[in-house]
Write a structure and sequence with these properties.
The protein has 264 residues and is of the alpha/beta class. 32% of the residues lie in helices and 26% in strands. The protein has 2 domains: 161 residues, P-loop containing nucleotide triphosphate hydrolases (Rossmann fold); 71 residues, no CATH class. Strands 6-7-8-3-9-10 form a 6-stranded mixed sheet, sandwiched between helices. Strands 2-1-4-5 form a 4-stranded antiparallel sheet. Helix 3 packs across helix 4, helix 3 runs parallel beside helix 5 and helix 4 crosses helix 5.
């Protein structure tokens, strides 16, 4: 078993508010998870549960208070910023806010062409960028500026960028937020197809119904802690029930109905 990414007992707190009302908010409180090479893992939880903070800590975007991060088999405690930046070429993150990877004055085609030149130097960058936009339904928007796109279209640009990067680890934070219900499943399916079976994928969401369709396992986080781990096939197992109220609430919101019990 090859572990691509392992987070062990991570802690991260923030000071919020102003003196004398300032307090400590424990955004991540001893959370642990691991994902194997080629695995699809869902990280789910309600808003404010610590999902985004956990993945940002785990990819070196936010310093941790304590804990251990291993990426591609290496301990990261002594990594420099430069080392993190180089490694993140292999570990891509799709941000919850699609504007985080856009530049107001740069057409989306040019932005993707720059990314293509970095990740696929063997092919003409503009051709790679145009093909990526075509795949996400934006083939006619190559010269569009970010403000000319809807929120859903901006998110599709993010999907295109990740697909052409060919990562070994993809962490997607709410990848279908802002997309119509009719295209959510197709966009996720396209993303997983394009990154390939060897890429480890972590899908972060509060939408357990979408996650359960495409992930092998689900980790539920609440209050900065992992409160339940489950294999998605368990959702169809007769007699299975969630062990934590947070999981039960997420399943109820997703319209999950417990399989009927059989026998005496």
């Amino acid at each position: 078993m090859v572990i691509t990414w392992r987070l062990t007992e991570l802690h991260k707190s923030f000071r919020i508010g102003r003196w004398p009302l300032r307090r400590i908010h424990r955004a991540v409180n001893g959370a642990s998870l691991a994902i194997e090479a080629g695995e699809r893992l869902g990280l789910v939880g309600p808003s404010g549960s610590g999902k985004s903070t956990l993945i940002r800590c785990g990819l070196g975007l936010i310093p941790i208070d304590r804990g251990s991060i291993q990426l591609f088999g290496e301990e990261t405690a002594r990594w420099s910023r430069g080392r993190w930046r180089r490694t993140r070429r292999r570990a891509q993150i799709l941000f919850q806010d699609p504007r985080a990877m856009l530049h107001a004055d740069v057409p989306i085609g040019a932005l993707l062409a720059d990314s293509a030149a970095l990740h696929q130097p063997e092919a003409p960058p503009r051709r790679v960028a145009a093909a990526a936009l075509e795949e996400v339904g934006l083939g006619d928007r190559f010269d569009a500026l970010p403000h000319e796109l809807s929120g859903g279209e901006q998110r599709r640009v993010g999907l295109a960028r990740v697909m052409l990067a060919r990562p070994q680890l993809l962490v997607a934070d709410e990848p279908t937020s802002g997309l119509d219900a009719a295209v959510k499943a197709s966009m996720v399916a396209l993303l997983l197809e394009r990154v390939g079976p060897s890429c480890s994928v972590v899908l972060v969401s509060h939408d357990l119904s979408t996650i359960a369709k495409v992930c092998d396992r689900v980790v539920v986080i609440d209050g900065g802690q992992v409160v339940e781990r489950l294999v998605t096939s368990a959702l169809e197992t007769q007699g299975w029930r969630p062990s934590h109220p947070c999981t039960a609430a997420l399943l109820e919101a997703a319209g999950w109905t417990p399989p009927e019990r059989t026998g005496p």
